Amino acid sequence: MRDPLAAAPTLLLTRIALSLGFHSWAHELPEILSPDEVIMLPPDGDVSAAADAETAIGGPNPERFRALLEAAPGLRWYHTLAAGVERLVPELIARPDLVLTNNSGAYDLAIAEHVVATIFAAAKRLPASFAAQGQHTWHEDPKSSDVRGATLVIFGMGSIGGELATIARGLGMRVIGVRRSGADGSVAPERLADVAAEADYLAVCAPLTQETEGSIDEDVLGRMKRTAWLINISRGAIVNEEALFSAVKERRIGGAAIDAWWAEPLPKDSEWWDLPNVIVTPHTSFSSPSIRERSIALIRENLRRFKAGEPLLNRVDPKLGY
């Protein structure tokens, strides 16, 4: 099938299907993308104003995406401000004439630094110190460990995993990458359980696909050291929740730092809140003031490429799911 972006578009416009709450700077896009025509769609409801759009920028909501596709039959490119696209891929498969790009790259540094922060928090037993501080208790030596020389296994060596590996190696950590291709010194996913046994920290950075769903299971967790920590900044469904909860509660692993949950927001009555060896963050590992600049640079470059009929950056492969 002919690539839908093989020729320059007939209209130089961008239609934005975006809830302004998704990013605080989204309201700046009309001015940023000038002189192209930018139509701001309402955060919810009617998207009929996008009827003639060839491009759109929006969030990862699949219902919103579906409505936009129905309203804009001539849409040829959709850019999502999210990095994960698993909820959009089913719609993409049904529209081979549409190109989907994601915001991968904009969040790499922030998320990688978040992972490193949780590694240090776990190594230096900061949760125990914070808990003692809240109780005005001068607690005993928390038996901290060193980060330098520790082994970090990174499941998913995409842009986030690659950034994390760079920082971790700079800290003197031993890094083992796990990626689908097994290239660049990484190991294939079939060896995940084997290398998990060597991990002091196992960071989940892979996208959620049919292949990765449930990858961190009882077998993988059962191979990990009693002192090892699991860190998930990707998607909850990649990890078997019951298996991880049992492993953490029974102290069969050292603990878990979770930013990506199975249900969000985490219910107030969830038992996860009260586990002393769990670091709970509300899916905010991506938060950074640099996201705006990186996102805008990516959008501008891809808009230029779209007009020129050139290949777009961050193009999603519907067969792979990322």
Walkthrough of the structure:
The chain is elongated and about 65 Å long. The protein is 29% helix and 14% strand. With 322 residues, the protein is an alpha/beta fold. About 4% of the residues have low confidence. It has two domains: 114 residues, Rossmann fold (3-Layer(aba) Sandwich), CATH 3.40.50; 173 residues, Rossmann fold (3-Layer(aba) Sandwich), CATH 3.40.50.720.
Main traits of this protein?
single chain; 322 residues; Rossmann fold; six-stranded parallel sheet; 10 helices
Please render the helix and strand layout as text:
Blueprint: E1 13-17, H1 29-32, E2 37-40, E3 55-58, H2 62-71, E4 77-80, H3 89-93, E5 99-101, H4 108-123, H5 126-134, E6 151-155, H6 159-170, E7 174-178, H7 192-196, E8 201-204, H8 218-223, E9 229-232, H9 241-249, E10 255-258, E11 278-280, H10 291-308
Parallel strand pairs: 1-2, 1-3, 3-4, 4-5, 6-7, 6-8, 8-9, 9-10, 10-11
Uncertain parts: 7-13, 16-21
Q: Helical region count? A: 10
Arithmetic mean pLDDT: 90
- Report the portion of residues in β strands: 5-15%
Q: Summed up, what is this model?
A:
Helices cover 29% and strands 14% of the residues. The protein is built from 10 helices and 11 strands. Strands 7-6-8-9-10-11 form a 6-stranded parallel β-sheet, with helices on both faces.
